From TrEMBL:
Modified residues (4-aspartylphosphate): D66
The protein's role, per its UniProt record: May play the central regulatory role in sporulation. It may be an element of the effector pathway responsible for the activation of sporulation genes in response to nutritional stress. Spo0A may act in concert with spo0H (a sigma factor) to control the expression of some genes that are critical to the sporulation process.
UniProt GO BP: phosphorelay signal transduction system
Lineage, highest ranks first: Bacteria, Bacillati, Bacillota, Clostridia, Eubacteriales
Domain Response regulatory intervals: 5-133
Protein name: Stage 0 sporulation protein A homolog
Top-rank taxon: Bacteria
InterPro entries, per database record: CheY-like_superfamily, Sig_transdc_resp-reg_receiver, TCS_response_regulator
KW Hydrolase (keyword) present: no
Keywords, in A-Z order: Phosphoprotein
Length: 145
């Protein structure tokens, strides 16, 4: 496991850039891998599709997962992450604009570690990402495989 990788699964380019900027500003990570849809995220995690040459022994420390994604939605991505022995302990934080109660319940039912609604305000969004990065990248401990 590489302590320096975040997999950001997000289809909105503005949110991708805001997240990158907030993490960089707080010197929290060395590398962000961006998947623009659920299928791309699964390909990255499991070394399939465009990522067949990727070393799947190098896993992200954190997955920031949007729910409303093209191709495969975030809940299905989460379901597949938790169903596989190689990825079931990954830290997965749902980072979404949805405040629907059913999305929150489904996320936790499927094993999300946290559910964070994206603040609309830029400064609040930056602060939320900073706090997420500090906790999940610095403080949180996960089992070693």
């Amino acid at each position: 496991m590489d302590k320096n990788i975040i997999l950001l699964v997000e289809d909105n380019p503005d949110d991708v850039e805001l997240t990158r900027r907030a993490l960089r500003k707080n010197n929290l990570i060395n590398e962000i891998i961006v998947a623009q849809n659920g299928a791309e995220a699964l390909d990255y995690l499991f070394g399939t599709g465009a990522y067949t040459d990727r070393d799947i022994n190098t896993t992200p420390t954190l997955v920031l997962l949007d729910l409303k994604l093209p191709k495969i939605d975030g809940l299905e991505v989460l379901r597949r992450i938790r169903a596989d022995e190689r990825t079931k302990y990954l830290s997965v934080v749902i980072l979404t604009s949805s405040s629907e109660e059913q999305d929150i319940i489904s996320s936790y039912d499927l094993g999300a570690n946290s559910y964070v609604r994206k603040p609309v305000d830029f400064n609040q969004f930056t602060e939320a990402v900073r706090q997420l990065g500090l906790y999940w990248m610095v403080l949180n401990e996960i089992p070693r495989r």
